[in-house]
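Repro:
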Amino acid sequence: MKNNEKSTENAAKTGVSQKLLDILVCPLCKAKLKSQSQEGKNFLVCNSCKLKFPIEDGIPQLLENQAEKL
């Protein structure tokens, strides 16, 4: 599977469009975010900050107080 196909598949799983995922960055360090599903919940993960931000109803919650540590 190509990276582009995998990215599109992850976007579909999280309910966030690939176009939006391509432009979203971590609100703290401005690093690229990766989509991740875990235990039926969806997150955007910042590997630089070691934080994951929840996605609720297809809307990323990019607030520091809602982030969880990895």
